[in-house]
Write a structure and sequence with these properties.
single chain; alpha+beta; six-stranded antiparallel sheet
Length: 363
């Protein structure tokens, strides 16, 4: 998992270093920088996919820099990875990107390391200098192959768009089933793959959905009869086996919960799962169920989540929570320490303490 991360010069983040745990729940007011921390992983993914030039032009390099080019002239990131908390053989990665004359970004330096030291950016690192795009994806070294498993998973899942024509509700290509897409646009195909290849996991997903939405009995997934290369999210309502239902008949909260269940209960979890405000539109009972799914998934993957939900926070331990505040023109990230809250937690939940402003990251 990611053991530690440092970010400099990115959006509202001037310079932070923070240790990450199996579960990382970011809380804070609107505009303090939670989404910027989450989006940094999207930035990393675009670097890895060799799309830095295009991404920085599209987003605007000036918008990516901390208070723009007048105040910041580079973005720096460093990550340490460990297979277990006691692992002393840390793999590592860092980059420094700077502006070009045409307002895009390039990599002044990109480095990967093994048995590297956090304080030393040179020892046991292998690096490239002044390159337009990353070399990690095409490298054949064992060190970079290890990193690729993580960078492949740096996707931001957000199942926010649940409008009638949203990708989450529409038919998709049946062969688009390698991984669940960030918006859930291939949800029917991915569930069909699980149904055919991992039936036990598929049945557990169905049972979990039913526990939150009792009207849902099971999915009815099959290729479209007229266009066999397409598939819809069809299902059967409890005690209504002859009636026809598809994704358009689910409520916003139900379709989001289905996508979240599928993401967190798939048999082969990605190295990292990053979700932006997963509680959106969910009933409190569903949020509690979601918290249980997150905790269970964290035994096999690292979970990073931003949230505004007091109910979701109530279901985690203090060490799982990272508060985010805005101080002196920058985002400040702090992990809670349970020892400092022991007396409070005898009478209140973490959500209560958040509401009462006992902890930072005021809602």
């Amino acid at each position: 998992m990611i053991d530690k991360i440092q970010i400099k010069g990115y959006k509202s983040i001037r310079d932070i270093t923070i240790e990450l745990k199996p579960i990382n729940i970011l809380i804070g007011a609107n505009g303090v920088g939670k989404s910027n921390f989450i989006s940094f992983f999207k930035f990393l993914h675009n670097i890895y996919e060799q799309r830095l030039q295009n991404y920085s032009l599209k987003e605007g390099a000036n918008n990516l820099l901390h208070f723009g080019r007048k105040e910041t002239d580079f973005i720096y990131g460093k990550l340490f990875f460990k297979d277990s908390p006691d692992d002393k053989n840390a793999n590592s990665y860092y980059f420094k990107s700077i502006l070009t004359e045409n307002d895009s970004l390039f990599l002044e330096k990109e480095a990967s390391g093994y048995l590297a030291e956090w304080e030393d950016d040179s020892r046991n690192y292998f690096y490239e200098s002044n390159i337009k795009e990353s070399h990690i994806k095409n490298s054949i070294s064992y060190r970079n192959k290890y990193l690729r498993f993580y960078f492949d998973s740096f996707k931001i899942y957000h199942f926010h768009d649940t409008s009638f024509s949203a990708p989450l509700r529409t038919a998709c290509q049946i062969d688009d089933n390698l991984t669940l897409r960030e918006s859930g646009s291939n949800l029917p195909a991915f569930l069909y793959y699980l149904q055919e290849m991992h039936p036990n996991s598929f049945k557990r997903i169905e049972r979990t959905i039913h526990s939150v939405a009792p009207f849902f009995e099971k999915f009815k997934l099959k290729p479209d009869r007229l266009t066999p290369d397409r598939i819809k999210l069809e299902w059967i309502e409890t005690n209504q086996p002859e009636s026809y239902f598809n994704a358009t008949h689910f409520s916003d909260g139900t379709i989001r919960f289905i996508a979240l269940c599928t993401l967190l209960m798939q048999p082969n979890l990605p190295k990292t799962i990053i979700i932006d405000e997963p509680e959106l539109g969910l009933h409190p009972v569903a949020i509690k169920k979601l918290a249980g799914l997150i905790r269970k998934a964290s035994a096999k993957t690292q979970v990073i989540i931003s949230t505004q939900s007091v109910t979701l926070v109530d279901n985690f331990d203090a060490l799982d929570i990272i508060t985010v505040d805005r101080e002196e023109k920058q985002s400040v990230f702090s992990r809670l320490e349970e020892s400092s809250l022991t007396n409070w937690l005898e009478d209140y939940t973490l959500g209560d303490l958040w509401n009462k402003n006992v902890i930072k990251g005021q809602p």
